[in-house]
Amino acid sequence: MLSRIADSMFWLNRYMERSDGLLRGVKTHYILLLDKGVNEDLSWRTMLESFATHDEDELKLLENDTENSLYKLLLDTANQNSLKMMIHRARENARGMQDHITKEVWEHVNHMYHDANQLSSSTSLQGFDAIKIIDSLSNECILFNGVSDTTMPRGMGWNFMNLGKFVERCILTIELTHKYLSLIDFKTEEEKDILFWRPLLLSLSAYQSR
Questions:
Q1: For residue 159, what are the contacts with CB-CB under 8 A and spacing of at least 6?
Q2: Which end of the chain is more exposed for a tag (fewer CB within 10 A), N or C?
Q3: Residue 65 to residue 161: CA distance in whole angstroms
């Protein structure tokens, strides 16, 4: 296998896994922030620090602004870690190696790219419209994993795709866990209420594993 193809397979799955992690975190924070009375210390800061680049003043302006935080995380092409940019890069990697992935994988990535591209700066990211968009894109990421699992042959390409996926999953787990531990100054011996850990656990699909 050419190194160029292996590299594209690796990064295709890294971008798709990071997109999945972003959407899972966004959905978790969006739902929990609807109940600010219970989750009063929760904000968009952790997600913005992980998936966008801002100085402290910009973070303070955005961390409690749901609509603009969602725009920055999902649609802002100036943010290189936004969902729209990651799906664009995933498609570029897939497009350059169509002979090495199944038709179903290419078509699904291409379909998700066009779905994300239809969202514009005028797209409503408030109320039911926002959660509908988040759910739809999150389901697309889940379907990507199913399509690749069921259609890709188990060869060297499959191994490079899995390597990209699990490297990214490991990095995201470390990154988000580090963010939450820093909030308690890494004092892991002190007990914290489950409400503190719930956003992290849900973002990592680990809430029911505790």
A1: none
A2: C
A3: 36
Is there a contact between 21 and 174 (Cβ–Cβ < 8 Å)?
Answer: no
**Token match 């940019």: residue?**
85
CB 144 within 8 A of CB 109: yes
pLDDT tens per residue, range 3-32: 999 999 999 999 999 999 999 999 999 998
- Do the beta carbons of residue 176 and residue 199 sit within 8 Å? no
Q: Tell me how far CA of residue 159 lies from CA of 89, 102, 142, in angstroms.
A: 20, 15, 19
- Rounded Cα distance between 114 and 108, Å, is 10
Which amino acid is residue 78, in one-letter code? A
Q: What is the pLDDT of residues 104-137, one digit of tens each?
A: 999 999 999 999 988 876 677 877 788 999 999 9
What pLDDT is recorded for position 1? 77
Residues 6+ apart with CB under 8 A from 127: none
Burial state string for 121-157 with b = 16 or more CB within 10 A and e = fewer than 16:
eeeebeeeebbebbeebbebbeebeebbeeebeeeeb
Vertex 200, ends 183 and 109: CA angle to 5°? 130
